[in-house]
Amino acid sequence: MFIGHYAVGFAAKRAAPRASLGVLIAAAGLVDLLFPIFTLAGFEQVRIEPGATAVAPFAFVYPLSHSLLAGVGWALLFAVLYWALTRYLAGAVTIALAVVSHWLLDALTHRPDLPLYPGGTTLIGLGLWNSVAGTVLVEGLLFVAGVWVYAAMTRPRDRTGRYAFWSFVALLVVLYVSSLLGPPPPGAYAMAVVGLLAWLFVFWAAWFDRHRTERCPPSTSR
Ligand SMILES: [Zn+2]
User: Fold this and answer.
1) DSSP strand E in the chain: where?
2) How far is the CA of 138 from the centre of ligand 1 (A)?
3) In which element (H, E) is residue 214 found?
4) Which of 45, 99, 173, 213 could cross-link with 61 by S-S, CB 3.0 to 4.6 Å?
5) What is the pTM of this model?
6) Tens digits of residue pLDDT in 41-93
């Protein structure tokens, strides 16, 4: 899953309005942010395997980032760090749930390649990626819903808050469509380096989120 994780980050703003969208998007995508680092460090592997699934031509070995147990561990680590820095409990709980949501959404889309724990031989994956139409439908609906929740929760304070937000959304859609239509990456190294660029989206989201403010709920507005 790709833009579906961003959808979770956007929607999480509803559960934790005071948390930065950058942090929430980092939480929902955390294990994909770690994966390229672990790949470049040699702890995890990806092979380009044309036809592995209709959507994603990849064969992954990624127990440290993408096993369920590791996901829970990353969730606790991120949540505890966040709580220690901010004392914002709703934010910390939302972060933990968002990190774990990644595994569940990947379990829906990947072919069975997600271990339950590092070294485990039971591999989970329902294989939605075998259907391009099904993937686009599910992920597209999730993304629209997530963006809608965020846009309804917040309003721009200035031009940055408006245009940096909508250009972020537009670029994600363009990248998603081109990943569906374009050729697979030339190799694991290129894929990992491109994967690192996702960190920029975290800072981009944090940036425009600071230029937006919470909308007053109808019950409390005068
Ligand atoms: Zn993932």
Assistant:
1) 45-48, 58-61, 114-115, 123-124, 154-156, 212-214
2) 16
3) strand 212-214
4) 45
5) 0.94
6) 999 999 999 889 998 899 999 999 999 999 999 999 999 999 999 999 999 99
